[in-house]
Amino acid sequence: MRDGTHPRERLVVVGNGMAGIRTLEEIIKRDPHRYAVTVFGSEPHVNYNRIMLSPVLAGEKTFEEIIINDRAWYEANGVELITSETVTSIDREAKTVTGEHGTVRSYDRLLLATGSLPFMLPVPGKDLPGVIAFRDLADVETMVAASKTYKNAVVIGGGLLGLEAANGLKLNGMEVTVIHLPDTLMERQLDPSAAHLLEQDLIRRGLQVVTGANTAELVGGGEGGRVTALNLTDGRSLPADLVVMAVGIRPNTGLAKAAGIECNRGIKVDDGLTTSDPAIFAIGECVEHDGQIFGLVAPIWDMAKVCADHLTGTTTSAYRPSATATKLKVTGIDMFSAGAFSGGEGCEDIVYRDGARGIYKRLVVKDGCLAGAVLYGDTRDGGWYFQMMKDAAPLGDLRDTIIFGQGLAGASPANPSAAVAALPDDAEICGCNGVCKGTIMGAIAEKGLTTLDGVKAHTKASASCGSCTGQVEQLLALALGDDFKVAAVKPMCKCTDHDHDTVRRRLVAEGLKSIPAVMQALDWKTPDGCASCRPALNFYLMCAWPDSYKDDAQSRFVNERNHANIQKDGTYSVVPRMWGGVTTANELRAIADVVDKFAIPSVKVTGGQRIDLLGVKKEDLPAVWADLNAAGMVSGHAYGKALRTVKTCVGSEWCRFGTQDSTGMGVKLERLTWGSYHPHKVKLAVSGCPRNCAESTIKDFGVIAVDSGWELYVGGNGGIHLRGTDHLAKVESEAEVLEYCGAFLQLYREEARYLERTAPWVERVGIAYVKAQMIEDADNRATLYARFLESQKFAQFDPWAEHVAEKQIADSYRPLAEVEI
Amino acid sequence: MSDWIEVGALADIPRLGSRIVRTSQGDVAVFRAADDHVFALMDRCPHKGGPLSQGIVHGHSVTCPLHSWVIDGATGEAQAPDVGCAPRFPVKLEGGRVLLDLASLTVKAA
User: Fold this and answer.
1) Do B21 and A812 touch (CB under 8 A)?
2) What is the pTM of this model?
3) Which of A67, A706, A793, B61 lies 20 to 30 Å from A446, alpha-carbon distance?
4) Cβ atoms A426, A322 nearer than 8 A
5) Which residues of B touch A562 (CB under 8 A)?
């Protein structure tokens, strides 16, 4: 490549990770035409945010969302990218590198960014199938795949990475045990008190934690020699179909060593990130600087700037290590640690503890300055403390109140926007990327930025772990005033600032199992919610914990509490279930008797082919149900956000056009799905031929028989906004119809917002998404179906019979007292 | 003049729920909040007569099951922007028993 008449110098970057590419970005920022660049990467991907692999594993982000530089970026900057090829040798004489597939590139300057390798414990069995590290996307894919087939996982190492892996595996449905050699978790970041709270939180989420545990060996013998157990040196044996080693990393120095570059633990670099060969630079987790090696991203960004300075001709800058802070990326666990938290000679501790609320804060003061901080449960002031540690200014009178945080310590107002406004320009906002307030405010003004994405793109602030997003938004609001609108989060109701999806995700992630627990953990603003949020929470909890959650009748809308439909005069309507719309003389006779006996004023056939008894008095309900039960009829759930009816046509049994037994199929579907509660009502239909007499194409799940099988449709409804269904799939067997129906309903139950019918839900997420989840991914379909069946085990009981049988409930339908006046 | 009538045990009313007391002048709904505070309202929403006893109880208020008006148990007033008032009755608890003062109904009956 040539720029005008001068040949460009050649720069080869070994390593397509965060450190190498960030350095490249810094170089391009300084001098875009200086180098012709080639990047080698071992992985098949573009540069992605390795820090965010934990949220990908936890299912909170997709891989696409964590890509930092897409292919278009490489092309736009004229960077040659060679993926899936590890560089195997450097010829320093000839100034060339050679890859494993034989690709050779010559260089004028070489940048080594080979990162680190996970440390694998040298125990017997460490090479068995099913034993992996947590380092790259392939490891995440291995873990997600294992969670679909296997049950037990053991994570070795209770540090940052190990706990994030354990949390992610748990969210993927595995039984997870974390074993940790020291006596307390995250001992490099937390003191024992905070570690104890963390351990309790993890146990509450269903993780097993074994501390002081030393691995003796891994036992194979599973399918294909796979690992089956992990034995501890104390004789205990833990079942393990998957073992994740997260016991530390070591710099990847093999290539450098083989080329004769000076290495110790890491590749030795000077303050300018230059190795013992002046043409070769190194950066990131592979280096050793002043005896120190690196595992967090913040110092690496500092290195990238210095390295870029030197590679573009500014040689006066020098890398100096700075304090680092740590946060755990487990949704719902707030933890912050920075500096010298363990105290020691000449240190004083200030401790705040609120055990009941799970809050612990410890500040370490040395020589009158803040030297370290450990925060658990409430980390809002982490950034403030961290800034004070970096400033190293004497605390003075602030020492008396500093533990209460920025809001109450009198340093700044409690209002978060005012607090951000009060920060100095050099206050660091984004710890991952080392972006300070002044840089962000400058970028907003110069580039005319108006959105969070804009700030991310131009400054990198909040582009890594995202925990400073709130502060960046406050800066945007500060700069733009009313012109800035925070990304629209629509709260569930006035009782909370959280939207439905957030509440639901946290409820599952944090193992919250009751309405009060959710309200406590998510800072509900009212003591017991309102008529809008309580039914939603009740449904979300029932869906998340079908086996253990006890339905809260007082959080049910009247119809679901009384198992009948309230009418405008306060009486009720009663609809017995008729499977597939099929009834018998006996059932009709029993219904007629009930109508006479209780003087029920009106009887009507519903749109879903059922019989509706209208005008039943509340106190008569249990007796009406008892009589209907006696004739073999159960609740039709015509009153619920539930499976209502399966409408059918007569099908091939009678109809001269019918191609399949649509009535029989309808009965089977109704037997499968009755009793299930949903975000909103759900209606099914089965038509026996494409004439579609059962109106399957305006149902939540509709089936139309054709000669060769069954066409399946989803997401339709009549109602105010008429919507025809989308075609989902064509299947051949009845068993498949049942599986697809159960899987679709479970996906809807788990992902739609309360009071959102399938039609708007399918419109919102797109039919392509639904297909990706349950048509293209057959494994996922099977798991969805399995979860539906599991949930049905606890849902398929007749609420009428229950209310008749339990005297206390039956009595509650009658007045508490009758009073003469 | 107050005239306390015992209508039943606190335990017979579910927390965050309600039971009714039937009178010749109409039903009276007796509510029990999460904190065991008890309040009593005429079981007729000022809007369209919906049975308040069948609504969802939250704080010291109830949301009508028919059209979601929110009625304040302390005053019987509907929450703004709706306007209307359900008659309320004094309640007291004595050793786990619930007593109502329905004098205002008696006056109406007389």
Assistant:
1) no
2) 0.57
3) A67
4) no
5) 54
